[in-house]
Amino acid sequence: MCCESKRRFLLLYATQKGQAKAIAEEIWQQAGAHGLEADMHCISEMDKYNLETEKDPVVIVISTTGTGDPPDTARKFVKKIQDKTLPPDHFAHLQYGLLGLGDSEYMFFCNGGKTVDRRLQELGAQHFYDTGLADDCVGLELVVDPWIDGLWLALKEALQLQKEKEGMNNAANAVSSSLSTAPHAVHEIKLSSEVQNLKLEDEGARGPDTLSQKLDNVNLVAPARDTEPSLVHSVPPVSQSALNIPALPPEYIEVEFQDAQGKNPHLSSLISEGTTFEVPVTKAVQLTREDAIKTALLLELDIADTAFEYQPGDAFCVICPNNVSEVEKLLHILGLSDKGDDVVCVKVKQGTKKKGASRPQHIPERSTLKFILTWCLEIRAVPKKAFLRALVECTSDAGEKRRLQELCSRQGASDYTCFIRDSNVCLLDLLHAFPSCKPSLSLLIEHLPKLQARSYSVSSSNLYQPGRLCFVFNVVEFPASPSRPVSRKGVCTGWLAELVAPLLHPNKDSQDTKGESSSTEKIFIFPRPNNAFHLPADSSVPFIMVGPGTGISPFIGFLQHRQKLREQYTDWEFGETWLFFGCRHQDRDYLFKQLRCFLENGTLTHLKVCFSRDSSTAEVAPPKYVQDVLRLCAKEVARVLLKERGYFYVCGDKKHMADDVSDAVVDILSMEMEADKLEAMKTLAMLRESKRYLQDVWS
To answer: Are residues 292 and 393 in the same domain?
Structure first.
């Protein structure tokens, strides 16, 4: 292969938070070792590739965002291929393999990838390799790693066929003879590739001593007395294994410190999703009692002087900073405490081996160090294996170096899942656990993803409260754990709670509490419209709302909007409305007791509530959860959905509520239709398809 020119394939990625890009970069890095060259581009860069004329195989890595949407970077591409005027043989010349990324905790798993895959098939494109669907709920690497392993043989076979079609018989015969034994040596290829990776993956990246370093380190960790593995400690077989670790990502960023004072860029420049608005927080109310398990806050924003528009059911995003004390700790560990206010110039390293290297879009070319760590980088992100691999080179202690190697290796995959991914470990936790690890600022910029704005459901109606936008959230708490030595609050919810502390009023029983102030605290927001989670267009259509806890948030906006419509249009017909709400304790976290007002004025027809932790002396125990109450109202639920063609809305926690509600609806449909469960599931699927069963859920 060394005498041949490398064969090209087109590699496209569509990413929202950087996962798909990181995987595409891993494919690009591995390609060279297999005698292939990946021509890699973001799928949005449609001026740099042309699928209409592409002759080489195409590999696509695509994530999913929102409620099953393609990532923002793929929207133009998806719109282009969904053109209904395209003929069914438009891509008949195209061979492709697709890797979709998603999270099975959400209803439309990998729908971004499935959408592109399905449409390419409809337009005549052919798979040269089976589609892979990786699940972030259990660990993307469980599908990603074997999918990449199998990609190379499939690519070579596709390129072989392409040569034959082009009439390159001599080359085709040569490739054919080299691949003729492949079916009999699949296991041998996979096993030898493990060894080959150790030899090839780092050549030229950090010098020729990389292999010996890996092999020398295998037995450097002294046998520990502990028999249980942990973040910093391994046990056999991992502790005694030769390791297959990822290729060392090439460095591509360099930073230069300047003593001169500089002005930081405006926060709106960090957002590519659309127009941002700086708005004052005019009101804050704590909706839960002090002894409630979770603290729920309602915030009101003044949008009167902006062009911000929304409908009940929409979401919007809040631009938030990292925690100040965490930024200070990171500066201290990096040895940069005295340089926080210094200006940093960020540019691409000359001579880098990274394909198409460029300064990350979320990193300003020139800003202070504190600005980068506070507003640009997600320092709470769970480190990817490529980041762990890079941190190995920054670690001086042999035992710590070996453990980091294990955590990013294939052999240590379960340890990575348990002690890093599932434990929600972040960079600070790693640096605390591995004190000899001293990464550079440039490495952090290369590997930490963009600090994402946080999304919240609107909890108000512009008809009911003109010029105001309300939202409700729980202050997220992450307790300390063996892998995470300190407890933390959510990045955005913790910041918001601290920001509005002066506004909070001691009377927390009602949304109408006057937690107002002349405070001028402002936050940056931008709209995130929801294309489906809206009130029925026909006001006469009945609907059911299920929203325990803060899941009730969008339904307050629904009810406020419906109340104003009833007042303004007295001759309209309005369908019945049902609300199923649940919380732990009636006296501690019943978030909106004024729901009774909606019931009394006729806006809300039926209100069903339950309290999961309250004790009862009743002979028959009351239902604890919303799904239990739904089952008690089975006939009415079935009537609304089946006979009256009503809508069903669910908002709240995915894992512990939305799936249970879905199961309850299936049981109700099965019972009332006198059909088996499979038939009921098909009916529910039809409701979803027709946008009459709608979810706004989070994990």
So the answer is: yes
CB 604 within 8 A of CB 306: no
> Tell me: the pLDDT tens digits for 562-610?
999 999 999 999 999 999 998 888 878 787 777 889 999 999 999 999 9
Domain count along the chain: 3
Q: What's the pLDDT score for residue 98?
A: 97
Instruction: Give first-to-last CA distance, the chain, whole Å.
Output: 47
Whole-angstrom distance, CA of residue 632 vs CA of residue 563: 27
Please give the Cα distance from 282 to 520 (Å, whole number): 8
Q: Does residue 148 share a domain with residue 286? A: no
Tens of pLDDT, residues 172-208:
444 444 544 444 333 333 333 333 333 333 333 333 3
Edge to edge, what strands does the sheet with 253-258 contain? 253-258, 343-348, 366-368
Q: Is residue 25 part of a domain?
A: yes
**What pTM, to 2 d.p., does this model score?**
0.79
Give me the helix-helix angle, 398-408 and 385-392, nearest 10°.
160
Sign, CA torsion 377/379/384/387: positive
Query: Tokens 């804050």 identify what position?
Result: 284
Domain that holds residue 364: 253-447
Q: Could you tell me if residue 271 is inside a domain?
A: yes
- For residue 107, what are the CA distances in angstroms to 119, 330, 662, 681, 693? 20, 37, 11, 14, 11
Looking at residue 186, what is its pLDDT?
A: 36
